[in-house]
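Please review this pair:
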Amino acid sequence: MLSIVAVILLAAMPMPVRAQEPVKDSLGYANEMLKAGVNAFQTDYLKGREFFNAALPFADSSLRVTLCRYLGLSWYQEATDKMDVSGFAEAESALDSSLVWYRKAGEQAWAVSSLTMLSYLKEHRWDLDGALECLDTAYAKLQPGMDTETLDIIKNKYAIYAKYGMVDRITPLFVQVDSLMRATADTMTKVECGVILADNALNAGHASQAETLYRESLRTLDNSGHDNELYAVLGKLRHLSMSRKEFGDALDCSQRMLDILKAGGNQDLGLAYFNIAEVYEKSLDTARCLSYADSIMANGGVPMKDPILNARHLTLKGMLNGRLGRWNNAADIYASVDSAMAAVGQNALRERMNLVPLRAAALYQAGRLSESEALYSEYYEYCGKVYSEESDATTTALLNLANIRAYSGKIEEGSSDYMEVERRLTRKITERLRFLPSETRDHYLDDMLKVTFAMTAFGLKAKHTGDSFSDSAWEALLLSKGL
């Protein structure tokens, strides 16, 4: 994207003027610096920025506009890089700088992207008013033809309204999306609008309307060359068909997704074969499901040589065995995956640990409780070291450990773990209760209800009455009601 912008600006800028005697305060010098900056910008925007700044004192009014635009673009690029490494404060500062330069250039359209990204950063640190103000300002700067940018603003507003429970503001956004879909000449904007409306219809319980919109998007995308977008919409239609038990349609979508990957020369076909196997699993065709589970490993006749990718394929096969109730098989497959990843070494540690909950759950379902508990305990220790003791991942790991201990009849250990989970969740929720957006409230409510029901059932089984454990369970229930 940046290279295209650079070429356009370079073509539009005044041609360098060469003086007989190079003088540093000449317009020619400024043009030379601009040209050098454009060339450097392609690979090193910071170096490009140095050239643009060097040119500024010697530029005329026309050239100054071009330089200011480029300086704004360099700060936008820096913000993007900072975002990639979670440097949110630095990214916000860089975006503020980009807007300063765009303002000096009198630039409206380019400021839209900076404002849209800035709104995300402000919402990230709970500055809701600032985030919405950025989006309103960006919307006011839109110009005819900026359909993609318009849709980005609408999507960002929707994300905020949905997250913070501003239901009354959401419906007008879908009216805007519908109007944009009808008015735009841009194919991909039209498709994206259609998918957004389909998702909304599906969430509202209008499955038939959603299917119609998904299929309209597919017709638009057919033979368009936008295979990634076609693949994504097929995935949505596949999911809808599965939920409606229309397995023939789901199988057709899955096969088309596989064909897209093959046609694109994609080397990793494991997930595509898993999608087909999953349809057969849901339709209770066990023989075909297991056949396609083997196809995952065959990978279209070219098995993966990379040990980690091969282990991922084996994990998918284990998941299918588990869904078919073959829990011992699944547990043994996961053990093979773990051994393969252990041979890779430290580079596969995170993947090994991510596998542990699947493996522990399979062992639990197979009745191998002591093995399951050992793995849940190992995973809890790992999460505490990697994510901190207070993280959601660590708390969830502790809840799983409490569940397996309670189920195994280890009353004291289970009681202690449940109470610690309840304490951590209560502390986290009460600290943030005033600021929790609606979707986060729902998430915490689900977590707290799981803990409450688990503690209540365990408390009755273990005859915990009128003690600190029953008090803790009661507090969890009251907090759930408050959410």
